[in-house]
Amino acid sequence: MSDVAESNDDVTDTSATNTAEPVHVESQSHLQTLVADEDVVLVDFYADWCGPCKMLEPVVAELAAETDATVAKVDIDELQALAQENGVRGVPTLLLYADGELVERMVGVQEKSTLAGLIEQHS
């Protein structure tokens, strides 16, 4: 048996979202639904042209696969109004929601261990 098969054994999909991969947010209402429906949501506001965002991308993908949190990605170029409404002034910006409330805001590349610790703290 491979490690990949074993690591997927404890992943349960209890909603329409696949929590093993980042969810690409399509609109303000989509983000609101995710935040309302999921216990812990990490939102990554990013841009394709952003070097630090590219550095953070594998970390975000790993967190989606390894934690119970829903990880959402918002392309600030596609959803400029959503980024503005959330006070995003630089990318990457990470927002962590727990039980529908904003509990953490981080700007810049973050260590995986820091993000995992915050997710665990609010789970």
From TrEMBL:
It comes from the Archaea. GO terms for cellular component: cytoplasm. CDD domains: TRX_family. Residues 1-29 are annotated as: Disordered. The record marks D44 as: Deprotonates C-terminal active site Cys. Residues 2-123 form the Thioredoxin domain. It holds the Pfam family Thioredoxin. The record marks G51, P52 as: Contributes to redox potential value. Keywords: Disulfide bond, Electron transport, Redox-active center, Transport. GO terms for molecular function: protein-disulfide reductase activity. Residues 1-12 have a biased composition (Acidic residues). Gene3D superfamilies: Glutaredoxin (3.40.30.10). Residues 13-29 have a biased composition (Polar residues). Disulfide bonds join C50-C53. The active site is at C50, C53. NCBIfam families: thioredoxin. This is Thioredoxin. It comes from Haloarchaeobius iranensis.
